[in-house]
Amino acid sequence: MSERLEHFVSSAAFDPVEVEKLTPEQEQYYLASQWQMMWWRFKGHRLAVIAGLVLLLSYASILISEVIAPYALHSRHTDYIYAPPQSVHLFHEGDFVGPFVYPLSYKLNFQTLKREYTEDTSTVRPLRFFCSGDGYEFWGLFDASFHLVCPDEQGTLFLMGTDRLGRDMLSRLIYGARISLTVGLLGITISFVLGITIGGMAGYFGGWVDSSVQRVIEILKSLPELPLWMALSAALPANWSPILIYLGITIILGLLDWPGLARAVRSKLLALREEDYAVAARLMGSSPTHIISRHLLPNFMSHLIASATLSVPSMILGETALSFLGLGLRPPITSWGVLLSEAQNIEAVALYPWLMVPMLPVVIVVLAFNFLGDGLRDAADPYD
Description:
The protein has helices spanning 16-19, 24-30, 34-43, 46-61, 65-68, 169-205, 207-222, 225-234, 242-255, 258-272, 276-283, 288-296, 301-324, 336-340, 346-351, 359-380, and strands at residues 89-92, 95-101, 104-109, 114-119, 125-126, 128-138, 142-150. It is mainly alpha-helical. The protein folds into two domains: 86-157, no CATH class; 171-380, MetI-like fold. The strands form three sheets. Strands 1-2-5 form a three-stranded antiparallel beta sheet, with no helix packed on it. The chain has a two-stranded antiparallel ribbon with strand order 3-4. Helix 6 crosses helix 13 (301-324) and helix 11 (276-283) runs antiparallel to helix 12 (288-296). It is globular and about 85 Å long. The two termini are 47 Å apart. The mean pLDDT is 84.
């Protein structure tokens, strides 16, 4: 037989208030707002947090592109055409020197007509930090020459090689981020305004308004996306200034991306408009605009934010594809798609593979937006 355990009963007086008293952590949880709970859930999604930090640093860098880039945007080095990437070293012949590069020298191969570069390992060219280099006009406001890192006064610094005109690929990549990253934000702004407005009207009013909007969406969805982008981009006048071309591409991307969001908003409003608080607001005389903006949209605003983060990558890929095909942004505007357009032939891929480097930030940013969108969607889902 198993030994019986003695049963202890507390002799203290029962206090229901003390039993039901919440701990500080429980009280903080029950009194938290929807946004606070979303933030706590989002912090638990480690991959989404890392993606958010990557995007934050990427967008912060476009504010100081001129400072981060080693060279000015249009600086040319005619003696270093198609120069390969230079490696940064710390030790020279066993002695610690600090960050430096070896100078490049080349000879022309008359059989392949290719410049063959070699490093002169007998000479050290130390890097300079917080230095004065190529001059630039900071945001078009004032002239400056301050850089985060500069090459030696007698040397070069091509961490990602140079192009056919001897321009530093890393500097052009940093400048191109300013265009490629902002085109997504401007495009998604246009898309959201149209999607929320048109989808909100279809979901709230229903009837012939809903039917008309659905037919327009079905027509737009039935058109092949990339050929339609190409056709509209090709229709832009060739004599437009670079800034007008940029705005035109942004508007085109925004105008073609709203149907998916409009359908999501419409389906949500069809369900929410019959809720008691929406009916009460309508009976009290509130206008449809007030009911939609103050009562209906806030109920799934978190989902709209997650949708935005998942839509921005399509904008960036759209601009990159159009510019790569020569139908989007054109020089002298510099974007990742424009940079990739120089690597359209097999010669560039085989002989100068560093011209494909602009593909890497596109992949990184698109993945970061997708991971961030997944984290926001999970954080906004109250049933997860």
